[in-house]
Hints:
Bound molecules: cobalt (II) ion
Largest sheet: 5 strands, antiparallel
Order of helices and strands: HEEEEEEEHEH
Radius of gyration: 15 Å
Distance between the termini: 32 Å
Shape: globular
CATH class: Alpha Beta
Number of strands: 8
Strand order of the largest sheet: 1-2-3-6-7
CATH topology: Peptide Deformylase
Strand content: 35-45%
Amino acid sequence: MLKIITQPNPILRKKSQAVKDILAQKIQELIPRMAETMINHDGVGLAAPQIGKNIRLITVNHKDRVLAIINPKITKKSFLKEWGEEGCLSVPDKFGEVKRSKSIIIEYFDEKNNQKILKAPGLLARVIQHEIDHLDGILFIDKARKLRDINTLNA
Ligand code: CO
């Protein structure tokens, strides 16, 4: 399993670079290891900077299927936004509400280097926006309201 780095590690604040060769062995080996790490931590998404690599690669756990999303670009955002609860494996024990577009369309490459277009509604849209923020050095705590730690939630 890969080690997840946490705030305030400066790697989390760097802008990540595009993956140049998706079919390279090191990328092909990294994707299943990120998926395993995400699932073992009960995460719904994981971005490569969180495991110490500043490359534009994320994994998303969607309905028991892992999506590898590489070099994503948001091509459309819904006008409507909504607040929703978020946390992050790199910001342990903190939760807060973040305002995100309700649905988005992204273009990306999958692990086989196929170009894809995905319309993501609801929670999936929120997760993908959170993970793409990681690729740009942005953490949810930068945008959150009602930020609090898990002890407060459980009180
Ligand atoms: Co996160």
